[in-house]
Amino acid sequence: xxxxxxxxxxxxxxxxxxxxxxxxxxxxxxxxxxxxxxxxxxxxxxxxxxxxxxxxxxxxxxxxxxxxxxxxxxxxxxxxxxxxxxxxxxxxxxxxxxxxxxxxxxxxxxxxxxxxxxxxxxxxxxxxxxxxxxxxxxxxxxxxxxxxxxxxxxxxxx
Length: 158
Ligand SMILES: [Zn+2]
What we know:
Shape: flat
Low-confidence stretches: none
Structural class: alpha/beta
Distance between the termini: 15 Å
CATH architecture of the domain at 3-86: 3-Layer(aba) Sandwich
Number of strands: 7
CATH class of the domain at 3-86: Alpha Beta
Bound molecules: zinc ion
Mean pLDDT: 91
CATH topology of the domain at 3-86: Rossmann fold
Strand order of the largest sheet: 2-1-3-4
C-alpha cells in the first residue's frame, strides 16, 4: 500500500484519507525541503496542490500526486484516480495518523488511537461521511460511462 505525506494546504484531505484507512502523515516541517526529506526518508508519496513542489519531486527521488480541485469531493475523486478506494475503513487516527485499536465498550464497537488516545465510534457523522462517499462514487461511475472508461475504475469499488 502507498504511504502518503499531505501538504499543509490539504490537511482536510489528509483527515479524509485516514478515514479511508490510508497512512497519511502530517508534515513535520513547513518548507518544501523538509517535506521532500521526510517523504524520502519515510518512503511516502507527497500530495500537494503546489506545482513547484511537484516539479522538485523527481530530483529528490520522491513520488507526488498533484491535486487540482479545491473542493474536498473533487480532491477525493482525484485520490480515487490515484488508486485510493473510497470506502470508510477505520485504521488511522484522523488527527495524528496513529494506528487505531479496535475495542468493545458496553457492547459498542469503538476504536482508540494508540498514539493520542482519541476515541472513535460509528455515530451520525459516520452516515454523513458514507453518503458523501457514495455520492462521489456515483459521480465517478457517471464520468466513466461518459468516457467509456468503466473498466479502468472498477478497482475502486472492491
Ligand atoms: Zn491520534
